[in-house]
Structure formats: structure tokens, C-alpha cells
Amino acid sequence: MSTVESPRARPGTRLALFGGRSPATFLARYWQRRSLLVRSAWPAVDELAAFASRERLFTLALRDDVESRLVTRSGMRYELAHGPFRRRHLERLPPRDWTLLVSGVNLEDRAADRVLRRFAFLPWARLDDLMVSIAAPGGGVGPHVDSYDVFLLQAAGRRRWRYGRQRDLTLRNGVPLKLLERFAPTHSETLAPGDLLYLPPGYAHDGVAVDTCVTCSIGFRAPLFQELAEAFLDDLRDRVALDGRYADPGLRPRSHPGEIDAAMRRQVAAALKRVRIDGAMIASFLGRWLTEPKPLIHFTVPPRTRRVDFAQRIARSGLALDLRTQMLYDRTTLYVNGEAMAMPQTDASTLRRLADRRGLAARACRDLAPATIALLHGWHRHGYLETTP
């Protein structure tokens, strides 16, 4: 493994990815506003073949620790199956009208991760994953609306996309997918290898394979506030501690025993008002929630290494975050894979750089404080970091 830092796109840098527009221009004119189609946005399509081939996707779909789905279509009828699949099943698929979708390919392949990190001008806190789909002619998942920003990068073959804003979000009944009952697209474009289509949340779209094709979907999540609230309340349940117990020593005989009286309501209300929610609690929850690994993710623990050997190794070759590791930070705290820790006073800028760039070059590792070495060594022992032997 060659340990290098992920590239960054400066806000004013013009990118082929956006047809020569800078990230700042893209964000100001298109992000969460309107769609954008860029022809030949990714000229080096051969870079995508390493992780987006039929064989690679079929192999990933056999695993029980990788999320995969198979959508088959017959006319207007759709069927959905969840992986893991048997190779025999995949190799016997018909010549038309199916799509295999494999999520989190960036967690399995560094080449896929490099594609995703080309979007480093966007906050990692919004990142979901890179999903790759392979489809036979006529294959697709039907007209639908996503609740997140998505970049659709064509890796091989051709796919016809129909899309546009749509107010009527009524869903079809009796289908295993959330498909629109009355799809009314305003655009129709066929993407060839290297083409890129950006769609904001709420844009209805339907992609159908013209020939056998592969599409990379880079998704940036926009969670519902209801989803955040439910997760926060679950988190709060594990952290709140209220002393005391309900008591009513002055209770008198009741003529209406089915009534909840005002005295009980006042006592319970007074106790619950003692639960205080402040900004620090919300910040801690958000950082831990955003970096919490998905259920199927497991880290590979490396062979045990002495701290002194680890320090020498990273000083010689640098280090990189494991593909599955999520690392974020705010002004006072580091968040790594669902855990929060106070930002160290020494080497804080280096640790922020690690979160931003996903790696540290050897020169950045040579003067780290002993406490920072101990922290990184602990992460390495959990499989959160990679080093070069």
C-alpha cells in the first residue's frame, strides 16, 4: 500500500468534473438548486474499470457483509431481491431487464474511494457512499425520488436518464420499490462513459440501460429532522440520569380511580424538566452519529505491533485511514467511528489534516507528540488505520 493523502479541490479550481466550472461556481449555481449534466466529466474511464467490472460487482454481491440488491423488471412489474446472492443465480440472469446494485463499494476498493474523494470540496459529514450498479439492456429501478444529493457517473455502456422536478409524489401500490405513480420528466439524456449527471434532492428520475452498462452513484445524505430527532432521543436515553422516584405519601381515597390527576402530572412534568439539552450534548451526538459505522461494517484487526515500531513505520511511510473509517471534528472534539474524544492540544492541526485528507505523509508523522502516537497506535490496533510495512 502506498500511503498518500487524498487530493483536495480548492474552491476556485476549475474542474473537468463540472465542465470547467469551479467547485465554488457549482455550489453557488447548482448545489441543491438544479440539475447539471456534464459530458466527458471523467475522461479517464479506465480508472473505473478496476472496481466497476461485472466480475468485481458479482463477487461483492456474494458477500454477506456487503449490501446488494437485484431489481428485475417485466413490463411495469418490478421484483426486488436482497443479497448475498449465489454466483449461479447471477450468472444465469436473463439477457435483459435486470439491475444489480452494490452499495459501499468505496469501503471495499481504494480505486473507488479515490473517485469519491474527488468530491473533497464537500463536507465528509454529508457523505453517504459510492454505489455501483450494473444493468442489462432495459434494466432499471423505475421512476423514483431520492432524499439526497447524487452524482451519477457513467462508467461503461449507455444509460438513458429521464428526470425533472415533480410535485406529485404519489407512490404506486403493490410494488416492492418506492416508485412514482405519475412520473412526468422534463429532461431526457443518454449518458455515455465518462458523463456525469448531478441531481439535487427531490428530483424525480428514471434510468434505463440502453445496452449493458455500469453506473456509479456518489450520494451525499440529507437526513430528515425526524430521523435525527429519533436518533438523538435514543442517544439521550443512554445518557440521562434523573434521581428520585415518583411518590405520593399524602394520597387520599379516590372516587374516580381511572383519572390521572393534576398532582401526578405536575410531579412528572417537574422531573422531566430537569432533563437539560444543551449545545454540547447536540454537538457530541451529531459527531458520533455521523461517524457511526453502518451495521454491516467490520474492521480487520492487524497483527499486534509495538508502539515504538508503529512510530518508526509511520515516520518512514506515513499512514492512511482505513476505507471504512469515518473521522470528523469540530472546534473541541474528534469523532472517529462513533466515538468522541477531546481534541488534543498538541498536534491538533495534524489530526484535523488527517480527517480532511484521509492520510498523512511520512514527514507529517516524524515529530508527533508521544500522546498523539499513542492515540494513532490505538486506532491502528482497532483496524481504523493502515500503514505500509
Offer a quick outline of the entry:
The protein is 26% helix and 23% strand.
Cα end-to-end separation = 8 Å
- Which class of the largest domain in CATH terms? Mainly Beta
* Series of H and E elements: HEHHEEHEHEEEEEEEEHHHHEEEEHEHE
Q: Tell me what portion of residues adopts beta-strand conformation.
A: 15-25%
Q: Could you walk me through the main structural features you see in this protein, from its secondary elements to its overall organization?
A:
This protein is of the alpha+beta class and 389 residues long. It has two domains: 16-220, Cupin (Jelly Rolls, Sandwich); 307-387, 50S ribosomal protein L16 arginine hydroxylase, Chain A, Domain 2 (Malonyl-Coenzyme A Acyl Carrier Protein, domain 2, 3-Layer(aba) Sandwich), CATH 3.40.366. It is built from eleven helices and 18 strands. The chain has helices at 23-29, 46-49, 54-61, 87-91, 110-116, 225-237, 262-272, 279-291, 307-317, 348-357, 370-381; strands at residues 36-38, 68-74, 77-82, 98-102, 127-135, 144-145, 149-156, 159-165, 187-191, 196-199, 203-209, 213-220, 319-321, 327-329, 333-336, 339-342, 359-360, 385-387. Strands 1-10-7-12-5-4-2-3 form an eight-stranded antiparallel β-sheet. The longest helix is centred in the middle third of the chain and has 13 residues, at 225-237. The protein is globular and about 80 Å long. It starts with 22 loop residues before the first helix and ends with a strand. The mean pLDDT is 93.
